[in-house]
Amino acid sequence: MRKPIVAGNWKMNKHIGEAQELAAGVAEGTNGFDDVEVVVGPTAICLAPVAAVIEGSNLGLAAQNMHWADSGAYTGEVSPTMIKDAGCDWVILGHSERREYFHESDKDINHKTHVAIEHDLKPIVCIGETLEEREDERTLQKVEFQVRAALAGVNKSDIKNIVIAYEPIWAIGTGKTASPEQAQEVHADIRSMIADIYGQEAADAIRILYGGSVKPHNIAEIIAQPDVDGALVGGASLEVDSFVSIAETVNSKQ
Ligand SMILES: O=C[C@H](O)COP(=O)(O)O
Fold it and tell me: Where is substrate annotated to bind (predicted)?
């Protein structure tokens, strides 16, 4: 039985005090939710201050990105050992905004996935198609390519610690959510591909999240899909009430 995850990607929002306040509210609001893993993803500068606030709670802490090297001449970057030191146990990799604005390639994301595993950080690897690719019926081809590329060379024993986040790019921040059927089709396809590569046990263990305009009013129908194991939430993770409400619905998934 896969334990679902609700992860909040705060993107470039919230100053330190605001981030601490939000994290404390989420920790309090999700206290006692035993059937969902709740993770918050502040900006790099807020990681340590948020870690201090959520210490002793059940919340996980995710960085939104990391470099692959432990240290060195990489101006502006943050290393895997630094995010661990700040309190992270998770790292979001390959978000479409990183791919688009910072030109992260599938090769970079594969490299970072390996580094995350080596550092005992659980990667949330983001994939997803553009609107044009969906309209051209190339969705499955695109996501299969991205998943294969991200996982190239990853051992079967590590698959259970990797999370895939399917985020159709056209649904991110637009208010347009993939229908539950569209999400299920892609999630099932990814799981069956994992089964082909790593076997059924790995496919049954890997958690696949949906992301893209997830809100309190639509999470129930999305999480009801058999291959949807939770959500990566952007906008709705920036308010305690909406994020806690999403986590509560997922916590109640039968
Ligand atoms: O990482 C989160 C996604 O980009 C979704 O963002 P959104 O919920 O604001 O659409």
Answer: 9-11, 173, 213, 234-235
